[in-house]
Design brief:
alpha/beta, Rossmann fold, 8 helices, binds thymidine-5'-phosphate
Length: 206
Amino acid sequence: MTGLLIAFEGGDASGKTTQARRISDLIGAFFTREPGGTEVGESLRDLLLDAQTPLAFRTEALLMAASRAQLVEEVIRPNLENGIHVVSDRFLASSLVYQGYATSLPVNDVRELSIFATNGLLPDLTVLIDVPVELSMQRRTDMPDRFESETTEFHEKVRRGYLALAESDLEKWVVIDGSGSLEQVSSLVDQAITGHLGLSLTSSSS
Ligand code: TMP
């Protein structure tokens, strides 16, 4: 039996990383993130997030896809083939939204590039943690990276892009209101994972 691939998506400071790690622990999955998750992917991440390194939009899209290609080949596919679930903090939809909807690149071009990178692999479920941009901006504390330094308008486009993707594929997406307390959001995410994938969350070793 092959494992399931579950992607967590959302704007910056949406709380998706906390939820992705929590669910990964609960279902005994392999946890990874994008960009990154491999040696070359983490080097690409440093470049991609560095606000001081100029990157053309197409270069940015290609480097995101390169990180994804390596992650799928080296980490995700082998785990899935061994029957191990994989939880990824961001996946292909991040490119559609950040490099497509929020930038000037055609979304379909970015989709084709991403599908080339994953060799056709798509998530079994994408969990979108949706938070109003104003709230996510208040939550940010660190030094802003390339994407966090973007305008409010950019982040509004990211949010709208995610909601449009979810709307167009309701079977493979679930939208969670991420504006509540940690307990409230966790409970909604738990219901989504059990309801959509039939996974038990009681088999936790933690
Ligand atoms: P995060 O993992 O801390 O959320 O940061 C990753 C940043 O990279 C985030 O701002 C979104 C951005 N990103 C893209 O623009 N395209 C992509 O394909 C991925 C995976 C991330």
